[in-house]
Amino acid sequence: VTRDDEAFLSALAGVLPGDGLLTEIPERYTHDEALGVEPVVPLGVAFPEDEAAVARIVSTCRAYRRPLVPRGGGTGLAGGARPHPSGIVVSFERMARLLEIDSEAGWARVQPGLTLADLDEALAATGLCYPVYPGELSSTVGGNVATNAGGMRAVRWGTTRQNVLGLRLVTGAGDVLLTHGALAKYSSGYDLTQLVIGSEGTLGLVTEVSVRLRPRPLATTLLVGAFRSLRALPTAVARLLASGLEPGLCEYVDKTALAAMADAAGLVLGVPADVTEQTSAYLMVELDASDDDLCGRLAERAATLLAAHGALEVFALPASQAHALIAARERAFWTVKALGAHDILDMVVPRSHIADLLEAAQALQSATGAVVAGTGHVGDGNVHFSILATTPSLSEEIAQRLIAEALALGGAVSGEHGIGVAKRDALLAHEDPLRVELQRAIKHAFDPDGLCNPGKGAP
Amino acid sequence: VTRDDEAFLSALAGVLPGDGLLTEIPERYTHDEALGVEPVVPLGVAFPEDEAAVARIVSTCRAYRRPLVPRGGGTGLAGGARPHPSGIVVSFERMARLLEIDSEAGWARVQPGLTLADLDEALAATGLCYPVYPGELSSTVGGNVATNAGGMRAVRWGTTRQNVLGLRLVTGAGDVLLTHGALAKYSSGYDLTQLVIGSEGTLGLVTEVSVRLRPRPLATTLLVGAFRSLRALPTAVARLLASGLEPGLCEYVDKTALAAMADAAGLVLGVPADVTEQTSAYLMVELDASDDDLCGRLAERAATLLAAHGALEVFALPASQAHALIAARERAFWTVKALGAHDILDMVVPRSHIADLLEAAQALQSATGAVVAGTGHVGDGNVHFSILATTPSLSEEIAQRLIAEALALGGAVSGEHGIGVAKRDALLAHEDPLRVELQRAIKHAFDPDGLCNPGKGAP
Lengths: 459, 459
Fold this sequence. Notes:
alpha+beta, 18 strands
């Protein structure tokens, strides 16, 4: 800690209440959940309690030209919350209040540090839900905004982008911006809400978010379809999504991933051996409706449709198994992490190319001997590959080849995890310089000194 | 036409094929459909046939520092396509091809000049549709992108913003930008697609759009609920949207507007006199499903729900009447224009405040003697008021007061028509200078010389 560092920390302590700044850094603030990203110890961790405190923190960082890294639940998978050694982490755990639920109007106004678990619990009694379930309920709304978090249910209700109605932000210049109110439609200028969503904290610090609420499904049925070939999946998915049955989730799980998930959850799905032997991929499809009668009818139609389009068998799971399987799918990251995965990829391609990408992964698996297990939000063209290789460098090589493949198919490096630091080199190696230049100009308008989460994301 | 003008037009003619530039300007290119916006004659109208021609046009305009105004179907309601007297209109009527339908993947790639009517016709056989129906099928996809067009069905599927997967743009600097491919999810940098949507041609000229396709409803039922009081509407709408029945449209029509629409369409709805006498507002609700059986069940539940939340009566219309009423609603603009409306407003408020806004309109109507008739996308908090006053200045005063009221309720000047020139003064009178400054910086990054649709929209 230099004399400059001390002056900075002392100025920062001066604008925060007594316990608002930590300079002995607990380990958990030195990283997020990204695999393969080395921890970094910041100079301090600040805990603002309101927007005014956030603005004071930004001003102080500007005065001392110190980087600031926002942090929500620390559950990010791309290193977006990795600290900067000469700056501070701004943790939103003391800005975690649910400010207002307007169930009549279908929205809630929340502070960015609110976890999805707390939001979901508060909404349970209203019959509504915030429909973005990225698979990690300890993540925060602010963190979800940063990465445009998606998850299994995005196929029905969209990602964070489609479910945020407006937000407040302290820009990197220290200005307080209300992008716009809680509006379902907007055509009164560039949509700054949309610009902030997915910007990974590089434009400023989000201080308030208005989220859209949707009906909490009253009745659900989970189907699992077993498919012999990857090639059959896209057609079945296309027909399902075109049917008007509107599945609440439509999830691809390969046989390796399903076995690992079932094993980790102690779940016996009871798929007959003659079916499992012939199966290379499973499709999880959830139907929902306002009552059991309607839901049953939807599930019946969906099962018939999957059987007509290549499913060897379609199973309707009993509620307890359905719940356990979905929970296991949500824990898939922890399962593969425990198995020693080196990397988790998050590419997105136009849905027409999903089979090409899955086959490329299979080919790499065969060629290298590494495990490249896939689960994916197949209805959105978004696939997660877990790579377990003999060495980190083989894992890296496989990741590079899969990313190049996805880009060649018209895809992008990340669909929902973000770029952070983990995927930045891969992104910049392929990115159109014009896109980089435009993004840098936009960043400069919000954050002229480049202090907000430097070295993260695209710009 | 000055010597400079001549040099510019001659340079422009040099980069376009023989009939690619008109300098005798047909009347229709001098305006769009905005009420109260005076026509302007441009120096020329250019008709590019491909992206390369668009890029040549932009380069030529840059070399001569001449403004360019993009034009789709010319159906805009805010004067966004009003020409500039010293510049040109770029009409996309020769870039109107449907480039690709991938019904398997659920998207289509189109040129910006394609009309919604042509797109819808091409999609009819696929069982899919582009779900944005702004009420004017002669509008183009490019024009819809410019204003983030919405319409009646946005309550189910969202506005243009939620249904464009990627696009191409020639920026004001003359660079060709692919924002990203046809991706349902994206977390690989700032979402430039979203930035362009709703930017009213002020960042550049859109040359290609990938749109999302949704199931074309196979069975539909239209309900009309009669409500005694405006105050009952928001609760009924909230319960309907929270029910999981997912109406395909949820439209408020006041009794004045319904009478005018029915009259213009020669439609007899057969609502008993004792009901009409007690009614001040109607709610149109469409249910849809994959077959008649399911649809009937949904409609039954929706009717019960509306009756339980304040509807005096709920009528299920026969298919032919349903079709005619929806068509009449889509023609509402032409109906009120024919009646001599001075202005059409397009404010959006958080849905919780819709009754406040409707009551403010009623109060102004009573106080001024003007007609302030409302129809609205009530499920999205978006209301259109048609103002028929004794003088244009009274109309203007009523418009200003309603806009101020909407902004005080946390709303915005436009939900789907855009700002154009018609609502620019109203917007700038109230707009946060920080939002203006940020938007100007963004515009400058895309359009450094300020040639793209100057004087339109927010920045």
